[in-house]
Amino acid sequence: MDAFANLSHTIAELKEALAVRGDERAVALARARAEALAAQLGPMLEVAEALARNELAVAVARAAHERSAVSDASHTAFEVTLRGERLRAEVAESQRKTLEQQLAKLRSTSVSRVEALEEEVEALLSPLRGEVAKSLYEARRQSLTAEIEAAKAQRERLEVLLKPSGTVMSEIECARDASLIDAALERETELAERLAETQAR
Length: 201
Description:
Elements lengths: L1 H20 L2 H47 L5 H50 L3 H33 L9 H30 L1
């Protein structure tokens, strides 16, 4: 790490200033640099320790997997554990994708809302502002209504698709399905709120 090399070099300069030159200004500058670099090392060491712990955990997990792979394949405990880890990974991946989709929708929604507000401002400044504003309102209301209907249909399809069918599901599987339905419901609710805002204007 560059900070370690810089600190070592600064310490060497400090020793030289103290022992050879006797330059008080150089000593003060070197000491200040050493203190600043030492302060930087704290967070770096924390990150390095966290990475080391993570690498150790990965190595332990890999070793455990390799030991299990060469052991008797009939060990159901390992199979259950492996299945649980796989499901946890699926839930985490599903939640990550959901968050990415929500972020993309938020960005898209923000852009479209700004554009819509700009159109409204232009309409209000227009001599025909009454007619233009009314047409803009009606177009937005119809668009939001169509989006709400589509979101509702998607949620209902998910509810039917993910409806328990007699198969015993684990807690993780249930959580995964619930997160998908919750994301669809949240989208539907967001659109309904936007429609209410539009109608209130």
